[in-house]
């Protein structure tokens, strides 16, 4: 038996909304330590990794008697989750040999209980080993600021160059009709930690990435006040959104390779 009771359905709603446009089907791998999801987009350029730890405060109850995999259509799951109020307590339930995933929504006042079942899918997916990497640069900033940068620069071009150096980090775009640049300087003196910009630099890094994917990643902005960008030359960027009382959601995006003339 698998059963996970989350105190707020809004967290799961935001997770699925941030994933469903890039990753339509996904396997939730459930174990005693928590729930993980790893999926790659159809073009094999972007990868996501979700970790929800069973020992965190976000679960009121968590039970997983044996490791199981729940293959779910994320678009359908999104539709089901929209039937829940943001403050509803949500319970996910499945048997040890699952073909059905059950959603139970309990209203805060206890006056309404809703139950929905969806059929599970068999999804072929290969779990990739994600190596632990010492990154040359880690930028932490307000998530809404990163969302605004990606949105603004996408008006002028398809790819953004991220340039990390000792003064801060530059985001640059150059398109056929114009160019743009946004410079962020380190700022750790503001009172609220979520408003700070910090740059941990071991080595300067300059890489280009497709804005289409970065803009898609920023759909996770509502999950967290902050986002971190981890970069090393010639390796994928890691865009991480911490999920309070649960874990984190990470996106990996391969850099664009400049063609030599």
UniProtKB/TrEMBL annotation:
Record's GO cellular component, any one?
PCNA complex
N-terminal signal peptide: none
Subcellular localization is given as: Nucleus
Pfam families, sorted: PCNA_C, PCNA_N
Q: Which InterPro entries match?
A: DNA_clamp_sf, Pr_cel_nuc_antig, Pr_cel_nuc_antig_C, Pr_cel_nuc_antig_N
Segments spanning the bilayer are none
Q: What Gene Ontology terms describe what this protein does at the molecular function level?
A: DNA binding; DNA polymerase processivity factor activity
Give all residue intervals belonging to the Proliferating cell nuclear antigen PCNA N-terminal domain: 1-125
The source's domain of life comes to Eukaryota
CDD domains per record: PCNA
One biological-process term from Gene Ontology? regulation of DNA replication
Function as written in the Swiss-Prot or TrEMBL entry = This protein is an auxiliary protein of DNA polymerase delta and is involved in the control of eukaryotic DNA replication by increasing the polymerase's processivity during elongation of the leading strand.
What's the protein name?
DNA sliding clamp PCNA
Gene source species? Acanthaster planci (Crown-of-thorns starfish)
């Amino acid at each position: 038996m698998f059963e996970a009771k989350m105190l707020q359905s809004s967290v799961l709603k935001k997770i699925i909304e941030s994933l469903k446009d890039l990753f339509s089907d996904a396997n939730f791998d459930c174990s005693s330590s928590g729930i993980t999801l790893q999926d790659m987009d159809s073009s094999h350029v972007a990868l996501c990794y979700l970790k929800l730890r069973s020992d965190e405060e976000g679960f009121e109850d968590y039970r997983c008697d044996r490791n199981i995999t729940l293959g779910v259509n994320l678009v359908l799951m999104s539709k089901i989750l929209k039937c829940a109020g943001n403050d509803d307590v949500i319970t996910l339930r499945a048997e040890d040999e699952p073909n059905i995933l059950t959603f139970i929504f309990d209203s805060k006042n206890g006056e309404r209980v809703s139950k929905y079942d969806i059929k599970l899918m068999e999804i072929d997916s290969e779990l990739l080993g994600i190596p632990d990497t010492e990154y040359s640069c880690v930028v932490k900033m307000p998530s809404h600021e990163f969302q605004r940068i990606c949105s603004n620069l996408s008006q002028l071009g398809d790819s953004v160059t991220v340039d990390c150096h000792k003064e801060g980090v530059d985001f640059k775009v150059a398109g056929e009709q114009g160019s743009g640049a946004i410079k962020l300087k380190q700022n750790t003196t503001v009172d609220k930690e979520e408003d700070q910009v910090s740059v941990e630099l071991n080595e300067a890094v300059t890489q280009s990435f497709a804005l289409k994917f970065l803009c898609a990643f920023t759909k996770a902005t509502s999950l967290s006040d902050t986002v971190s960008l981890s970069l090393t030359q010639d390796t994928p960027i890691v865009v991480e959104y911490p999920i309070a009382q649960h874990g984190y959601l990470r996106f990996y995006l391969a850099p664009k390779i400049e063609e030599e003339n």
